Amino acid sequence: MPSAQPPASFPSNSSESSYSPVPGSATMNMDDGDRERSSSTPTVTSSKQASAAGVQDKDKPRLTEQEKKNNHIASEQKRRAAIREGFDRLTELVPGLEGQGRSESIVLKKTVDFMHLKLRERQELIAEIENRGGHVDDSLRP
User: Fold this and answer.
1) Which whole-number Å values give the CA distances from 94 to 72, 81, 86, 128, in the listed order?
2) pLDDT tens digits in sequence order for the chain, 142 residues long
3) According to the UniProt entry, which residue ranges have a biased composition of type Basic and acidic residues (predicted)?
4) For residues 26-44, b (16+ Cβ closer than 10 Å) or e, as one string?
5) 36 sits in which H/E element
6) Of 74, 78, 54, 52, which is closest to residue 63 (Cα–Cα)?
């Protein structure tokens, strides 16, 4: 029965590897071409690895410092992109923000003002309905 082998070194050539910040979707080609490794857990692809799969955690391949750094950078870029997309969406939804420069404090302030306006309008509509003898279900009240 073959013994567990230490993990092979990853190639430094960026054209031989691909990266995705989504856990489990990134793979890196290895020198022997026989195994792939995700950013979160190893993937068993050979009979040699299958027999070593039951080996303790200490034998699992670990991310290198550079891989950890790359993961962190990609996660941060993804987080910033999500924030940017959220602000862009707000500028589309809130009147008066179209075509302005993207000052996040202005976007937030105008969004809060717009929401207060909409809540006031809703209360006024509910009051109008009730003044005319209608009934508004409690689940529709702010």
Assistant:
1) 33, 20, 12, 25
2) 444 544 444 444 444 444 444 444 444 444 444 444 444 555 555 555 555 555 556 777 899 999 999 999 999 999 999 999 999 999 999 998 887 777 899 999 999 999 999 999 999 999 999 999 999 898 888 7
3) 56-80
4) bbbbbeeeebebebeebee
5) strand 36-37
6) 74
